[in-house]
Amino acid sequence: MNTKKTLHIACDILAVIAFLTAFFTQGLVHALWVGGLGSIAVHTIFVGMKSDRAMLCSNTLTISSLTELLYKAKNKVARELTGGIAAIMVNSSDVGVSINGTVTSIKTADPTLNTSYTPSMTIPSGDDQTISTETMQLSQVANVRIPLQGETILQLINTVGFDAAYQQLIEQGLRKMTNAIESHVCSVAYKGASRATGTAGTTPFGSTLNIIADVRQILVDNGMTEPEKDGLTSLVMNTNAGANFRKLTNIYKVNEAGDSATLREGTLGRIFGITLGESAGIASHTKGAGTGYDIGASGEAIGQTTLTLEGGTVNTTGIKAGDVIAFDTDTANKYVVRTGSTATAGDIVINDPGLRVAGVDASELTIGNSYTANFACHKSAIELAIRPPAMPPGGDAATARVTLFDKKSGLTFTAALYLGYGMNMVDITCFYQAKVWKPDFVATMLG
Description:
The chain is an alpha+beta fold. The chain has a domain at 287-369: Beta Barrel (Elongation Factor Tu (Ef-tu), domain 3), CATH 2.40.30.290. Helix content is 27%, strand content 29%. A hairpin with a 2-residue loop joins strand 9 (270-271) and strand 10.
């Protein structure tokens, strides 16, 4: 018997002892809570377990097997890829907050560069400096509620075991919540990117990995530390791009790649100092339908982010946040729109650091095609804040709370047990929000 199996048996024994002790001292409800979540904690939370097939209906837990004593289904809970969460800062805690709680960060503007020097007995005045703030509100909610009826619990105890089913129900809940958070992160990331590279509608890495060099160039041109110096830059892509990358001969051929990691293990590794990852939450962006927009008579300076346009035809959707735009006088750069417009004339906002080439009067704007929004970023550029709800003094009706760590995503959640009439319920709720603090350090890889 191997060590891992021995440890699992020991964990099961400890869980049973905890269940029986709680049953004889505190009753069935507390015993189920201790035995269920206790087993999860002892097993280091969320390993694949055996369970009967189960499904959640509106407010009941229903066993789908018709012959409980004869049929036992084995189910390993699926988990999707979460490369977006792994690529960014995660601000996670079990300290409760209110919905729409605010996180604030400062933003400093470029200083004045003086190009002259005049000795004087009078000390020159300092240059004006602008310090502004940016905020994000934890306005997103993810919640699952798992009902537990006494009859169903006893059926599970008498057949496949309550622990196994209970753990899978919680893991399915965390899977659902994590996927929602991952999709949110990826959506926020691409809409907050500085510029884009690649061909919309074409999956990257069809024949070469050169696009990674193009992504890197955007980031370092914007002032980001070279990726190879701190190892904190990631490129997050969907599995179509990942599959193409693994098929490149200079990646899977050991004599060309320098090692066998991709060939033997399937790992993407690092290219040009950038860590590659995959996500099931990569967004697909549908372009705005506006046409005919051009820069107004006053023109726009290098570094400008608010652009005044005129002469447009809206076609219902105009210019949308996340659209990739270019100008006929600046074809080398593809800018990402932060704030769009559904007017024929007026302002749009592109992300920092703004225009790299001055916009002149009548420069024609073109909205790029719809695309798959793979993205690259420095870890410090994007933050995900996630918290449980704040509780009133003395707590609410929950009889117990436990912190759950999801090994797959690295996120922390709080589960609470609520006692009802003939049943109880496990509730897992969090507030969350992602924010791009530094668009300069984010780039979109079009697919």
